[in-house]
Amino acid sequence: MGCAVKVYGVVASPFVATVLLCLEETGVSYELVPVDMAAREQKTEPYLSRNPFGKIPTFEDGEITLFESRAISRYILRKYGPAGTPKDLLRESNLEESAMVDAWTEVEAHQYHPAISNIVRQCVIMPLIGGARDQAVVDENVGKLGKVLDVYQARLSSSPYLAGDFFSLADLAHFAFTYCLMAGTEYTPLLVKRASVGAWWGRIIARPAVRKVAALIDLGLLKQMSSS
Questions:
Q1: Among 31, 27, 42, which Cα is nearest to 3's?
Q2: Omega before residue 57 within 30° of 0, cis
Q3: The pTM is what?
Q4: What percent of the chain has pLDDT over 70?
Q5: Contact 23, 16 (CB under 8 A)
Q6: Cα-based angle 184, 36, 221 (whole degrees, multiple of 5)
Q7: Kind and range of the H or E run holding 175
Q8: pLDDT of residue 37 exceeding 90
Q9: What's the pLDDT score for residue 14?
Q10: 3-class DSSP string for 17-66
Q11: DSSP assignment string, 127-165
Q12: Is residue 46 reached through a cis peptide bond, with omega within 30 degrees of 0 on the bond before it?
């Protein structure tokens, strides 16, 4: 009998990797169901019956089907990360802590992600699909990301993690695109030259679940490179 939890996508996708990290952090068994992106499987049935927008990932847990990685992440952490345990990455039993998690998760979505995703898209994804980077786009977003990281540096100078003295979704949500930036581009100094940001990243990448998903991303990228 197969796993009740299924994730449809490719692990080289940062959005898929984020969902997998939530599952790994909470210790949930799952099945990764490959989607043939080159053949545009995600744009055809039966995939579209699961995700009408034709994007990855799509997530199934028994009778429930979800799309959008941020919504999937919260679902996983609410269901499988009991409050008051080390798996509780939302801190919903504590109003102040959960508010801080929400605030910094929103910062990731609206300040950090737009800049870093453009850098990763130009420097990592475009070469994989046979394109060339637009250095002007890269330079613009390196500047934007640097300004965001200056704020992070100030925050992390007085706190080991973004929401407080605990690892949470606010930190986890940064992992996948940051890993692609650090492993696949020349822009690692953006983080490491800011001592508190670099130390924060070191704490994240040292987590066993993070190391496991990072290895899966590496394998996924190697597979894509060999087939391109």
A1: 31
A2: yes
A3: 0.94
A4: 95
A5: no
A6: 15
A7: helix 175-184
A8: no
A9: 95
A10: HHHHHHHHHHCCCCEEEECCCCCCHHHCCCHHHHCCCCCCCEEEECCEEE
A11: HHTT----HHHHHHHHHHHHHHHHHHHHHHTS-SSSSSS
A12: yes
Q: Evaluate if residue 149 carries a pLDDT over 60.
A: yes
Q: What are the DSSP calls for 95-134, one per residue?
A: HHHHHHHHHHHHHIIIIIHHHHHHHHIIIIIHHHTT----
Closest CA to 184 of 155, 157, 221, 223: 221
Please report the pLDDT score of residue 128 as a whole number: 82
Tokens describing residue 17: 């990797």
pLDDT on residue 102: 98
Which pair of tokens denotes residue 123?
């420097």
Q: What is the mean pLDDT of residues 137-160?
A: 98
Q: How far apart are the first and last CA of the chain?
A: 34
In this structure, what DSSP letter does residue 7 have? E
Residue 226 has pLDDT above 80, yes or no: no
Rounded Cα–Cα distance for residues 171 and 152 (Å): 11
Q: Quickly count: other Cβ atoms within 10 Å of residue 69's Cβ.
A: 25
Q: How far apart are CA 36 and CA 85, in angstroms?
A: 37
The CA distance from 48 to 70, in Å, is 19
